[in-house]
Amino acid sequence: MKGVFVQSFGCRASQADGAALETSLKEAGYRTVGDAAHAELVVLNTCTVTHSADVDTRRTIRNLQRDHPQAEILVTGCYAQRAPEELAAMPGVRWVVGNTHKNEIAQIIADCTELYHGRIFAGDIAYESVFRAMAVNGPQEDRARPNLKIQDGCSNRCSFCIIPTVRGRSRSASAESVVEQIRKLSEKHCEIVLTGINLGRWGRDLPGNLRFADLLRRLLRETSVRRLRISSVEPMDWSADLLELIASEDRIAKHVHLPLQSGSDAVLKRMFRKYRTRHYASRVELARQWMPDAGIGADVMTGFPGETEREFEETVTFIKQQPFTYLHVFTYSERPGTRAAEESNPVPVPLRHERTRILREVSAEKNLLFRRAMIGKCLSAVTLEQPRTALTSNFLRLELAHELTPNQLVDVEVGSVSETGLREKALLPVLT
């Protein structure tokens, strides 16, 4: 059996795609290996949300060609969909497979008997109207918790974002298929992460105009899953119904992630975001009111074209006012084909990075205060693949004093904070 190494870049949806690719290639006769050095085939499942993501992919390809020239390289994912010719021209790349053909990778490889390089399989994803995804039988080899992608694409048109171009319009997996996959995954895994490109839009394109909360209730009712974790959901989709459901259900992680992007209404308007800060704050307030110890996080972008010093200060002030427990801060990166990339008043790159640094310091301060507030409390956590490490329901890393196997739910009394997380004081009986 030939060895295959699948490396996924970017978001949780990409991680879910990578796990599905591993499954399909195993079924095709490959064996998964832990690193490229032992692989006859290397699959790079790429991201293209920022310029640095593209740079990472190209650097990885060059390193593979230099260090492991015997390996065949297949590049897929969002970068492959956006710029297939660019990738196909790189030495060592045998196949470039866009998101339109990702589900066919095992067959594409099997059908290619000639030793040519740079062959492209990519179509126009704008015409995709049906959710297509390979089954996920578990996480990628080095992870304890599987990501299950139940929605793909995005029908929003934020001015900075290339994702609708490379993922297509919003499309939902059927409720029946999600229930079936959760049933199978929950036989082996105690926590499953539900993910998508615009997860909160799940069901809107299905008969009956379903809502994401409807699906969650069905999963809780019809499966034995011990814990569901919800990845990022857009602010306008964090309805009172969804938040109340999470707050009331022990089987859903107390973790709320709402992309913010900016705390300035003027910038949000230029971004074509569909909410303003007062709407956003109302969702966060409700989450904190109903879940006092929940992890609440946001994505924030610095240096959007035309962002003035005053607008940035509005963002800083707004963020400081919110009960965030962490932030994912990104520096704006021009993406060809987006409206924002055509703007004539870019923020100087050094200033973008300085603003990113400032917000990351704010994030670190908020996270430390939140972690300190957890001392003495009992938190539920799932053990991870790293030794003596767990992840709490409210999204904090926990150092365990005991060596436990991955993929267990435990109750832990928190004793102190570590440099980036928490430390166990006492381990209570494993949940059954």
Care to describe what's here?
The protein has helices at 12-27, 51-67, 78-82, 84-88, 105-111, 163-167, 175-186, 212-222, 240-248, 265-271, 277-290, 309-321, 349-373, and strands at 3-8, 31-32, 41-46, 72-77, 93-97, 119-121, 147-152, 171-172, 191-196, 227-230, 255-257, 295-302, 326-331, 378-383, 389-392, 397-399, 409-417, 422-427. With 432 residues, the protein is α/β, with parallel strands linked by helices. It has three domains: 3-127, 3-Layer(aba) Sandwich (Rossmann fold); 147-373, pyruvate-formate lyase- activating enzyme; 378-427, no CATH class. The strands form four sheets. A six-stranded parallel β-sheet has the order 2-1-3-4-5-6, with helices on both faces. The protein has a five-stranded mixed β-barrel with strand order 14-15-16-18-17. A hairpin with a 5-residue loop joins strand 14 (378-383) and strand 15 (389-392). Helix 7 (175-186) crosses helix 8 (212-222). The mean pLDDT is 94.
